[in-house]
Design goal:
The protein is of the alpha+beta class and 130 residues long. The protein has helices at 30-39, 95-129, and strands at residues 2-5, 11-14, 16-17, 22-27, 49-51, 57-59, 64-75, 81-92. It is built from two helices and eight strands; from the N terminus they run ββββαββββα. The chain has a four-stranded antiparallel β-sheet with strand order 2-1-5-6, with no helix packed on it. The termini are far apart.
Amino acid sequence: MDKIILKNGNIIEIEESSNGGSFRKRFTDPQEYLTTLAILTQDNLSAYQVQNGAGLVCANPENKECLTQTVVPLWAHDGTLDGLDVTFNITDVDLLAKAVKELQAGQQTQDGAISDLGETVGKLAERSVQ
């Protein structure tokens, strides 16, 4: 069975892979699907490995993210849900958009610090006037 080894060391056994462009996994429990989806973060997909069944590295994708999945329910003969067949679509991270988000986050931190400093200076000025 092929494997995806995420940056944080988590291993996901998969049915098949397209060398980093997508991978397919069957789940017997919908909760297992949600757990797997939760670890497919942009950070964990920033550098990971795809290994074949023999343990050979097939791909070392970088700067990827999982934005979409195709979920196909698997039904038992009696009409009950027997599992899910999920294809996780892996795409390139828009590095410019990522840099802008990081810049915006830094700017929010800086704005907060400036506001705090303004309040402190205002309080000090009030004290010195009294």
